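Re: that backbone. Tokens:
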């Protein structure tokens, strides 16, 4: 399938920016990317530094809020959008517990607006790929995996809003025949992840000698996937996936949180030995649990593997080492985020 004008939403975030780099440099995609991002606290144009210079004809950025329906209709017409890869979302569970409002607006209403804009394009529209999460399935006990047939049982405002958006995507395929694909992925990690999520937060706190806050007993399990493996899976589904279908994506890397935090401490000790004060494990601090904290996620991706041949390339041990090296080599990036400096820069460049 040839795509000429691909709208990527949320392309300045963690996965979206990795996806844009991957698509332009590592795949057979020859079209143009229009990156529409409203630049919330999680959107950082620095994640895409150098991309416009390297691909001046094939990449452009528009500051745009997916909650603004008329603006989306304009963008679709102006750039003759024939496909969408939809990342834009409020993505952090803890924030959704404190203030769910923007999760409802962006994740549900924003997705609805995009679906409507795509529907209005009529027959020229080729594909709407929706990026979603395994959290829509709820929590697992000690055994078993989520499959595409697992009933939805979201437990946080974040996962409930993502579940709602998934249902809308499915309905637009069934009702209007919109060509859609949908992927539900497990926890990602890698370069450019905002340092509120477990792995980058622990790396930076360990480097700075700050406490490492572990929720509850630290024995909740997530299934970790290196971000470029996710990007490859998304593109495979967009190119070869059956329309109207959902595909689970996972890393085959189940880990308890406390084991990850200990690995990070040991790797940071090795790669950036502390001047004084000894081993980083002493910074581990158990804190009260997250309300509604899902105990375990694990993904069965045999549908994606069986139909399209995808499987993850990176092991957790090598991916984590690579990630820590990236954060060590990019202290200026994280310093600008942690100090808030990146937001003043965004305001100067793009306005409020
Ligand atoms: P992120 O928080 O790093 O980035 C989100 C991006 O969306 C930011 O650039 C932000 O500015 C933009 N955005 C937010 N609201 C917007 C709006 N109203 N209009 C336009 N842009 C807006 O998120 P991420 O971790 O890169 O996640 C991307 C997608 O992948 C999300 O849909 C998330 O649900 C899904 N997902 C994430 C993970 C993970 O582990 N991070 C796993 C599975 C699925
Ligand atoms: O499973 C996919 C989901 O993974 C995505 O849909 C979400 O967008 C993404 O944020 C992520 O959600 P989690 O809640 O699993 O990720 P987070 O990094 O916030 O937390 C991972 C685990 O670590 C979780 O069990 C909570 C725990 N945790 C997290 C933080 C931030 C801690 O123990 N301490 C912390 O400080």
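Recovered sequence:
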């Amino acid at each position: 399938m040839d795509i000429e004008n691909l709208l990527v939403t949320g392309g300045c975030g963690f996965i979206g920016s990795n996806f844009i780099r991957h698509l332009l440099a590592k795949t057979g995609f020859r079209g143009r990317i229009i990156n529409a991002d409203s630049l919330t606290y999680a959107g950082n144009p620095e994640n895409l530094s150098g991309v416009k210079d390297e691909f001046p004809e094939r990449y452009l950025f528009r500051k745009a809020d997916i909650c603004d329906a008329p603006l989306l209709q304009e963008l679709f017409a102006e750039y003759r959008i024939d496909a969408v890869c939809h990342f834009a979302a409020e993505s952090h569970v803890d924030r959704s517990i404190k203030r769910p409002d923007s999760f409802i607006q962006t994740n549900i209403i924003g997705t609805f607006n995009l679906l409507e804009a795509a529907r209005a394009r009529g027959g020229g529209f080729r594909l709407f790929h929706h990026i979603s999460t395994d959290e829509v399935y709820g929590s697992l006990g000690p055994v078993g995996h989520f499959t595409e047939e697992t009933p939805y049982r979201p437990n946080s405002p974040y996962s409930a809003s993502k579940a709602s958006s998934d249902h809308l995507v499915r309905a637009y395929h069934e009702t209007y025949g919109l060509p859609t694909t949908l992927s539900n992925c497990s926890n990602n990690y890698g370069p450019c992840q905002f340092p509120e999520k477990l792995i980058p937060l622990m790396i930076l706190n360990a480097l700075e000698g700050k406490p490492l806050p572990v929720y509850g007993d630290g024995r909740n399990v997530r299934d970790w996937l290196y971000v470029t493996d996710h990007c490859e899976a998304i593109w495979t589904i967009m190119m070869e996936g059956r329309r109207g279908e959902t595909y689970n994506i996972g890393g085959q890397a189940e880990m308890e949180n406390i084991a990850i935090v200990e690995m990070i401490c040991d790797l940071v000790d090795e790669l950036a030995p502390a001047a004084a004060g000894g081993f980083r494990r002493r910074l581990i601090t158990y804190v009260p649990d997250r309300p509604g904290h899902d105990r375990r996620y694990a993904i069965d991706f045999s549908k994606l593997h069986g139909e399209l041949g995808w499987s993850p390339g990176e092991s957790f041990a090598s991916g984590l080492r690579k990630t820590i090296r990236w954060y060590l080599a990019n202290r200026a990036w994280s310093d600008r985020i942690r100090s808030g400096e990146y937001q003043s820069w965004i305001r100067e460049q793009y306005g409020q």
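Residues 91-93, 133-135, 186-187, 197-198, 201, 213-215, 220, 222, 257, 290, 297 surround DAU (ligand 2) (CB under 6 Å). The two ends are 38 Å apart (CA to CA).
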